[in-house]
Amino acid sequence: TSSMGDDTPQPPLARWARGVFSFLKQRFAQVTNPPIDHLRERHVMSITTRLGGRTPLLAEGPGSNTLREYESFLLFPSAVDELEAAGACVLDATFDVGEGPDGLEAACRRASNEAAIAVRAGAGYVIVTDRNAGPDRCPVPSALAAGAVHHRLIADELRARASVIVDCDDAREAHHVACLLTNGADAACPRLALETIHELASTSRLGGDADSSEAQYRFFTAVEDGVLKIMSK
Q1: pLDDT at position 63, please?
Q2: How far is CA 79 from CA 110, 136, 188, 191, in A?
Q3: Pairing verdict, β 94-96 and 68-70
Q4: What is the pLDDT of residues 139-169, one digit of tens each?
Q5: DSSP, residue by residue, 45-91
Q6: Which residue of 7, 45, 54, 91 has the fewest CB atoms within a 10 Å radius of its CB?
């Protein structure tokens, strides 16, 4: 592992606790065959994302054109708000700190159960969010929450009926977003990262000449390019 350039201690052996994303590693071949260059061959790679319930592949009807199409798998908070207004099921991925470590598994099970009930009732969008986190509410790591909901919907044969959107505060870089996508998320909103960039740009602490909107778009571009590089492997 260290020969790949990562000389930091492995998470289980590290002196300081690290997030769940640090425990997840990329598994890839050094060279694809044929090789893909995500920069020079961008025209054959797409990050266009469609959200909503999928109709059966062999059937065609009015429900086939109800998907929402986005240019990227990264969403701004305003897009998440639009999905909520469209009837999305919002799952609280937090738990009371008084529950202790046992509250983590209970929160994952609760979110999974609520997701299955909502999708059976017709919800086409499932938003997993930790926005209620605070001094008394501990957030569930978004990779765990997304994976729990995703696999529960698969087990109940409901996964194609809805899209899973993760609205979280712990995703900050391309590796984090890639982990969310591979753990079952269809789209992600890195809310805290966007709010932090806005705050730094608004107070001239970010550096450079970009305003808050431009800085947020540049952040999205950097993460998207990072995920495309991972996809190209």
Answers
A1: 62
A2: 25, 28, 10, 11
A3: unpaired
A4: 999 999 999 999 999 999 999 999 999 999 9
A5: ----EEESPPPPTT--SGGGG--EEESSSB--HHHHHHHHHTT-EEE
A6: 7
